[in-house]
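Propose amino acids for all 190 sites.
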C-alpha cells in the first residue's frame, strides 16, 4: 500500500484566502459548508497535506461557482502562494543573485533550484522545464482533478517569474486532459 502524496498547505490556505477576498469571510464560510469543505473553517493546515484535499476543494469549487470563477480564485491563490514563497521560502541572497542575471539564465537557475523541491507542489505528478524552443514550464497533474487546477500553477509561476526573472513576463497556458492526467504547459515570454 502506497503512502498518499503530500503537497504544501498553501494550496489550501491561499485558496481559502482568495475566496475570502472575492466573497468575504461569511460568504466563504457558507460556501465551504455547502461544498462539504466546512472542516477548513478555522482549521487551515499548517503542514504538508494530502494532495487529495486540495483537488477535492478544486472540484467542489468548480461544481459550485463554475469554471471561470474557480479559475480566477485559483490564479489568485497561486499568486498569493508565490508571495509567501518569496517572503518565507526562497532565501533573499538567492533572490538577489537571480535578479542580477540575464532573463534566460535567471529562468534556468531559478527553475533548476525549484525543481529540487517540485514534489511540494506537484505531489504525485511531474514537473519539468526547458528553454527550447522558448522558455517553458510543465506540470503534469496525475491525481484525479479538473483542468481548472492549472490556474493555480499559472498564478504561481507568473508571479514568481515576474518578481525574479523579468517584471514583464507573460505566460501562455495550455491546460488540457491527457488520458487520466492533466497536462499544464506554460510557454513563458521572459
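Proposal:
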Amino acid at each position: 500500500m502506497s503512502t498518499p502524496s503530500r503537497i504544501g498547505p498553501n494550496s489550501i490556505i491561499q485558496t481559502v484566502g482568495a475566496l475570502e477576498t472575492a466573497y468575504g469571510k461569511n460568504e466563504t464560510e457558507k460556501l465551504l459548508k455547502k461544498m462539504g469543505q466546512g472542516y477548513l473553517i478555522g482549521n487551515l493546515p499548517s503542514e504538508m497535506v494530502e494532495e487529495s484535499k486540495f483537488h477535492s476543494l478544486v472540484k467542489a469549487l468548480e461544481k459550485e461557482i463554475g469554471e471561470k470563477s474557480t479559475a480566477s480564485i485559483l490564479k489568485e491563490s497561486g499568486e498569493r502562494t508565490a508571495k509567501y514563497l518569496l517572503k518565507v521560502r526562497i532565501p533573499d541572497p538567492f533572490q538577489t543573485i537571480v535578479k542580477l542575471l540575464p532573463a534566460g539564465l535567471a529562468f534556468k537557475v531559478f527553475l533548476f533550484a525549484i525543481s529540487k523541491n517540485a514534489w511540494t507542489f506537484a505531489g504525485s505528478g511531474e514537473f519539468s522545464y526547458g528553454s527550447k524552443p522558448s522558455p517553458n514550464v510543465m506540470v503534469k497533474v496525475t491525481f484525479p482533478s479538473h483542468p481548472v487546477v492549472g490556474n493555480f500553477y499559472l498564478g504561481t509561476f507568473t508571479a514568481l517569474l515576474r518578481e525574479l526573472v523579468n517584471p514583464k513576463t507573460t505566460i501562455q497556458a495550455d491546460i488540457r486532459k491527457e488520458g487520466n492526467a492533466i497536462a499544464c504547459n506554460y510557454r513563458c515570454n521572459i
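Helices lie at 10-23, 25-34, 51-65, 67-89, 92-100, 103-115, 119-122, 150-164. The mean pLDDT is 97.
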